[in-house]
Write a structure and sequence with these properties.
The protein is an alpha+beta fold and about 220 residues long. Helix content is about 40%, strand content about 20%. The strands form three sheets. Strands 2-3-8-5 form a four-stranded antiparallel beta sheet, with no helix packed on it. Strands 1-4 form a two-stranded antiparallel ribbon.
């Protein structure tokens, strides 16, 4: 007897977006998936957690001898993060699981819930090329600050010495600020781990014509 191994989909090969009928009609009629400003998501902790991870990561990196050439820029970037300065960050949220009770409850509510399932590669192809990315969310404070610190350190040390010499103090600060801003939406509190979330993120400094407003409860 011949045997054929079953093909097991890779993690996040398909991603689900839970919504209600109104959201479903909006997606279909406009052929658009809208991303919401992360400052106005359901729980403000979603944004604050990433900020806490960034502050801790930068604080530790300031003491790292391997990054002595970046110390001044790290200090300035840390001050900006501490002051709350971030690029406008928008996220469309997806889930690895297409039949998850907590998501039906959270986004269908008392209405008719709808789950739209997308191919991950197709979603990735939709994103604008500049300052946008599709990423799984990582959960937990210790994991978040450690992963953020190591990733940022690796990317800074990967810059060749000759290229580093050519960067002004302002260019170094901007580079670190851009990298850390990109990392912040990738992390959430461990309490949200049951969401199995992925995010399609778009960032930019100022409002553009593509930004629209809608009421949601009291905001």
């Amino acid at each position: 007897m011949a045997n054929t191994a079953a093909r097991i989909p890779s993690r996040g090969s398909v991603l689900a977006h839970y919504t209600n009928l109104a959201g479903f009609v909006g997606v279909v009629e406009s052929s658009t998936i809208r991303a919401s400003n992360v400052a106005f998501l359901n729980d403000r902790e979603e944004l604050l957690h990433g900020l806490k991870c960034a502050k801790e990561a930068l604080s530790r990196m300031l003491k790292d001898a391997a990054l002595k050439d970046w110390k001044a820029a790290l200090g300035k970037a840390a001050a900006e993060i501490e002051s709350g300065r971030l690029p406008n960050t928008y996220a469309a949220c997806f889930c690895e699981k297409s039949d998850l009770l907590s998501q039906w409850r959270g986004y269908g509510g008392r209405e008719q819930g709808v789950c739209l399932v997308f191919d991950r590669k197709g979603l990735d192809a939709l994103r604008p090329k500049k300052k946008s990315f599709l990423t799984p969310v990582q959960y937990g404070f210790v994991r978040g600050k450690s992963a953020m610190r190591q990733s940022l350190k690796d990317r800074l040390l990967a810059i060749e010495a000759d290229d580093l010499i050519g960067l002004s103090a302002e260019e170094r600060r901007t580079h670190i600020f851009d990298l850390i801003s990109e990392m912040i939406p990738r992390f959430k509190h461990i309490g949200f781990s049951a969401e199995y979330e992925w995010r399609l993120v778009v960032q930019h400094e100022t409002l553009r014509n593509s930004v629209k407003f809608r009421p949601s409860r009291n905001i």
